[in-house]
């Protein structure tokens, strides 16, 4: 597998701004007016205006859909993340509504242009205006969906890029030293603060080890609560643990300076052990304050024991030729055939389900 290409495909920063309905129409009408000026015969000019306007709307809406990643082909981490943040079905419906309008524009372009061609010279202008009014009505029906997709795009652009490389997930309660460990061993520079939920989102760090990139993921604080009570950030962490880890570093703080009893930390460790099938290495941090018998100790404050813990983690790296630990979920298979490129009319939604309906000709005033 070409890791660089995979990383590039996950670069959500490249998703273009989603235009509003008025912006789509303004662009279409400007292009149509330019095409119209190329024709000297009045009726022929009106026909060309309709064709150009409908084609411009179709092309722009298709580009909106193609700017978003294909949901079914995303790594499981991102599918879970999208489900937590927006709900994939809601996202599919929004894209499907845009696809509906794009297909409608394509399907009706020729017929409405012919209406102008075969109209009388006196009626050509009226036929052109009626065709444009129908087009505007369809595009305005999806304005809310376009606005929603642009909000999604603005958040999506800030999501972390998870690469398909050997991955260490760092887990534990808030303030146990997760971010400090990553700062010690990688290029990440997470913001550290002395209050719960210090890590506001998934933070990614990298380390080059023997010319190979190692990825470290700092999860948000996970509270030992039933899954249905976890908030969005906590669910993101669960997704990261289940679907990206080749090995998990679970950090304990027996000093309880983190603000959580050791018993609660142990319960969380047991819960994670039930969730994953990859190695879990549990260590104690803040060894300068207190240690715990049977657990490797380190101090991310002084650096003592950090390199030894890192070596323990790297010892779980699969042998050359095996991309990931076999217990990891959602990883890519280098031999797997890539899925076919998804066309713009998938995902689709039925008009009855979406509540969208193209206007009839008799509904458009002359």
Q: What is the percent of helical residues?
A: 40-55%
Would you tell me the overall average pLDDT? 80
- Report the portion of residues in β strands: 5-15%
Count of individual beta strands = 6
What assembly state would you assign to the polypeptide chains in this entry?
Answer: single chain
Enumerate the strands of the largest sheet in spatial order, edge to edge or round the barrel: 2-3-1-4-5-6
Q: How many helical elements?
A: 12
Describe the protein's architecture and organization:
With 366 residues, the chain is of the alpha/beta class. The protein is built from 12 helices and 6 strands. The chain has helices at residues 3-9, 21-36, 42-66, 76-85, 88-117, 124-141, 143-156, 178-185, 232-244, 262-275, 306-314, 351-354; strands at 167-171, 203-209, 212-218, 247-252, 280-284, 296-297. Strands 2-3-1-4-5-6 form a 6-stranded mixed β-sheet, with helices on both faces. Helix 4 (76-85) runs antiparallel to helix 9 (232-244). The chain is elongated and about 95 Å long. Residues 1-9, 194-198 and 331-353 have low confidence and may be disordered.
Secondary-structure map:
Layout: H1 3-9, H2 21-36, H3 42-66, H4 76-85, H5 88-117, H6 124-141, H7 143-156, E1 167-171, H8 178-185, E2 203-209, E3 212-218, H9 232-244, E4 247-252, H10 262-275, E5 280-284, E6 296-297, H11 306-314, H12 351-354
Helix pairs in contact: 2-3, 2-6, 3-5, 3-6, 4-9, 5-6, 5-7
């Amino acid at each position: 597998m070409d890791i660089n290409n995979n990383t590039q495909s996950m670069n959500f920063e490249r998703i273009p701004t989603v235009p509003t309905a008025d912006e789509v129409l303004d662009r279409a009408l400007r292009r149509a007016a330019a095409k119209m000026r190329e024709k000297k015969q009045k009726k022929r000019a009106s026909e060309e205006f309709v064709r150009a306007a409908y084609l411009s709307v179709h092309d722009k809406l298709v580009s909106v859909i193609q700017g978003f990643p294909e949901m079914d082909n995303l790594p499981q981490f991102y599918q879970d993340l999208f489900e937590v943040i927006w709900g994939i079905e809601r996202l599919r419906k929004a894209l499907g509504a845009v696809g509906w309008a794009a297909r409608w524009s394509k399907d009706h372009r020729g017929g409405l242009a012919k209406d102008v061609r075969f109209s009388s010279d006196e009626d050509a202008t009226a036929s052109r205006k009626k065709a444009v009014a129908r087009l505007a009505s369809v595009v305005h029906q999806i304005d809310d969906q376009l606005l929603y997709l642009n909000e999604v795009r603005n958040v999506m652009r800030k999501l972390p890029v998870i690469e398909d490389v050997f991955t260490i997930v760092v887990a534990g309660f808030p303030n146990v030293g997760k971010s400090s460990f990553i700062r010690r061993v990688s290029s990440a520079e997470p913001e550290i603060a002395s209050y719960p939920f210090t890590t506001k989102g998934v933070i990614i760090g990298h380390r080059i080890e023997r010319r190979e990139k190692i990825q470290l993921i700092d999860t948000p604080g996970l509270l030992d609560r039933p899954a249905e009570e976890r908030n969005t950030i906590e669910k993101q962490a669960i997704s990261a643990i289940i679907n990206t880890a080749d090995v998990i570093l679970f950090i304990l703080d027996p000093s309880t300076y983190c603000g959580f009893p050791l018993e609660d930390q142990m319960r969380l460790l047991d819960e994670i052990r039930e969730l994953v099938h990859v190695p879990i290495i549990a260590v104690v941090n803040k060894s300068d304050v207190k240690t715990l018998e049977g657990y490797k100790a380190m101090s991310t404050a002084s650096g003592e024991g950090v390199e030894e813990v890192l070596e323990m983690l790297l010892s779980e790296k699969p042998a050359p030729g095996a991309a990931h630990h076999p217990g990891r979920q959602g990883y890519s298979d280098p031999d797997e055939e890539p899925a076919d490129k998804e066309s713009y009319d998938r995902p689709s939604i039925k008009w009855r389900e979406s509540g969208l309906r193209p206007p009839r000709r008799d509904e458009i005033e002359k």
